[in-house]
TrEMBL record:
InterPro entries: GIY-YIG_endonuc, GIY-YIG_endonuc_sf, GIY-YIG_UvrC_Cho, RuvA_2-like, UVR_dom, UVR_dom_sf, UvrABC_protein_C, UvrC. It is found in: Cytoplasm. CDD domains: GIY-YIG_UvrC_Cho. Keywords: Cytoplasm, DNA damage, DNA excision, DNA repair, Excision nuclease, Hydrolase, SOS response. The UvrABC repair system catalyzes the recognition and processing of DNA lesions. UvrC both incises the 5' and 3' sides of the lesion. The N-terminal half is responsible for the 3' incision and the C-terminal half is responsible for the 5' incision. Interacts with UvrB in an incision complex. Residues 15-92 form the GIY-YIG domain. The lineage of its organism: Bacteria, Bacillati, Bacillota, Bacilli, Lactobacillales. GO terms for biological process: nucleotide-excision repair; SOS response. It comes from the Bacteria. HAMAP family: UvrC. This is UvrABC system protein C. Residues 248-468 form the UvrC family homology region profile domain. It holds the Pfam family UVR.
Amino acid sequence: MATEYLEHKLALLPDKPGCYIMKNINGQIIYVGKAKNLKNRVRSYFKSSHTGKVAAMVAEVADFETIITSTNKESFLLEITLIQKHQPYFNIKLKQGTGYPYIKITNERDPQIMITGQIKKDGAYYFGPYPNVYAAEETVHFIQKVFPLRRCNGYQGRPCLYYHLGQCLGACFKTVPKDKYERQIKRIKSFLNGNTGQVKRHLTKQMEAAAAKMEYERAAEIRDQIHYIEVTVEKQKIISSDETPRDLFNYYMDKGWLSIQVFFIRQARLMKREKRLFPIVDTAVEEMTSFILQFYHRRNNILPREILLPAGLPNKEISEILGVPVRTPQRGEKADLMSMAEENAQLSLSEKFRLLELDKSKTTGAMKEITDALGLPSGHKIEAFDHSHIQGADPVSAMVVFIDGEPAKKLYRKYKLKTVINHADETASTKEVIRRRYSRLLKENQPMPDMIFMDGGEIQMNAVKDVLENELDLSIPVVGMVKNDKHQTADLLFGDHNEHVDLNPRSQAFYLVQRIQDEVHRFAITFHHKVHTKHSLSSRLDEIKGVGPRTRNKLMKNFGSLSKIAAASVDDIHALGINRPTAQLIKVSLQKNAEVAKGSSHD
């Protein structure tokens, strides 16, 4: 049921193509969609009954905006731009990069072969992507042995080790003819395109010969090489006589979930299959279109020569945006592959439903329990902070992030406090880290969390509120995590006067608070230990005459601790390139310090 405010906005919606942006009560963008008719599409969210993810999204909508576009194609492009910029919670979102490596032959006078995840327009040859990273690496090692190019850093006036091993053509000490490289590259391309029969026969003979001589380790090594070739170069049998690079997409939808299958067809083989499962808000066609366009807007993803899609998708617009032919096969082997992809999508979703024992009380449900206890609207993201120092030395802060009850470790942040004069000042420490964190989010126009949790009491909470309200003009709920006299999670503080909010110790909400408090404390302590160890080691070394930053770094890198440096011989220290008098002074100084420390420990 829409509020009166939303009803007024719904009445003003245009019947034109464009994008709509849904926002929650905190003004955060939670969903972006596109429509040929904005009026009909947006009204449908509030005038119809929904279940699952759609109902959850609509329940959080407090406002929306629309952006009109001239054409349907423009709305596609705008939608992808907005999704990538704002990363809305309820949209399908794809990570940057494919996560799979390619084998590359560089475009140089003396070319090399290597593994890369970066695709550039540099004239190089790229093969892949390869789903088995280890097998791809082993195949490159094999190629370097059988079809060597350049494996050294270039001309150095003498043959490199790889030349002596037969794995480099000799660019290290001579000019290698271009036609020699070209012949070798032709063999490599043929091999990577699947013509492996001759190489495999040769390897099989070697394996059998090694086994006959009872050289079983050598035979096993060759057997593994054959296996790597099969999983990298011959992942699938030939499925077509047409070697056009193609990507094929199909999907299956049930109970508000979309199951997507992507087939990568290279060298007439099914090289890789990617599967994705998403709960969705819009129609399957709209969500599939968004997925495909995001898929090719990622970095390091080479467009194929042709894209195959099931019937019902806007092939023309997708083709115009991506710049490659987009077709729906009607018969033959491509249509059979399309059916196979749909069948795999259905099987994946059925398996998901069987295994999907989503205990919501442990994740999303726990979040709902917390917001209900605090009297707040539904939220998804908590950012929690804690400080750490030893008698005021080396003060640090740490932030952890939980989304729907699960830690999002890639979003964790560490802070070395810079402006705090009295390092044991909790108020100053809190103000600095909050100011740095949220002024940056404002500057970068990034979404704010739904709640901020502080490990501590009223002092920290009031410091957070002061910075948010009086300096940054932000309204984010601030919650204090309180511990009892046994240093265990007890309850929460919240509200204008920091009132205690009791949680049932056996509830999932309590367990989640406990987990957040333990995690942010662990993260802060671990970070502080690293900083303090580094500083204490550095400061002790800096006191020794003749030890500057370069010498200190050498010692730290090679020994790692004062005790190990003290235990090292003068010759060991001198071997790092440190002159002997300074090495002797380091040894004597650290031994004296160790004796003083040992004597004081007995007092």
